Amino acid sequence: MATDARTRPESTLPRHPCLRCGACCASYRVAFYWAETAPHTPDGIPQSLTRKLDPLRVAMAGTDQPAPRCVALRGMVGEDAHCSEYARRPSPCHELKPAWEDGRPSPQCDRARLRHGLTPLTPADWAGRAFVPGRQAGLPAGE
Ligand code: SF4
Ligand code: SF4
Fold it and tell me: How many structural domains compose the chain?
């Protein structure tokens, strides 16, 4: 999912594809176990940014609606986008990987991009980029 632009070092590398996207943060319900939230998990997403779904699950505010857009997403989808809570993003956001970043497809990434009129990523989108463990900036997620 979206990346954290604030933590991205100046670089001559091509811009991370997620920083021109953000589609997955505006496509899916981002639901997860309530105990992932702060203060139950000290470095978790603040409870105030979530909405209760049921006794066990919460969702990122803004994502549990017909036209989802996570409350933590900043910028314009498809142009510039980043996650304002990247360091504290919940597990679904960790799990949704951009297609081909690590050499594997990502149907969730592809579907989100198509939903927003963007072409799916290809291996060529990563050409010239060194692999950065853990990724840099504020990327998006989904259920
Ligand atoms: S993971 Fe895919 S859909 Fe999500 S921001 Fe990155 S490129 Fe866009
Ligand atoms: S990465 Fe997760 S928390 Fe951040 S904007 Fe996207 S959906 Fe929201």
Answer: 1
Residue 24 is part of which domain span? 15-119
Ligand 1 surroundings by CB, under 6 angstroms: 1-2, 17-18, 21-24, 96, 98, 109, 112-113, 121, 139-140
Ligand 1 pocket test, candidate residues 96, 104, 129, 143, most atoms within 8 A of CB:
96
Asked if pLDDT for residue 133 goes beyond 60, the answer is: no
Do the domain assignments include residue 46?
A: yes
pTM to 2 decimals? 0.86
Burial 83-94 (b: 16+ CB within 10 A, else e): bbbbebbbebbe
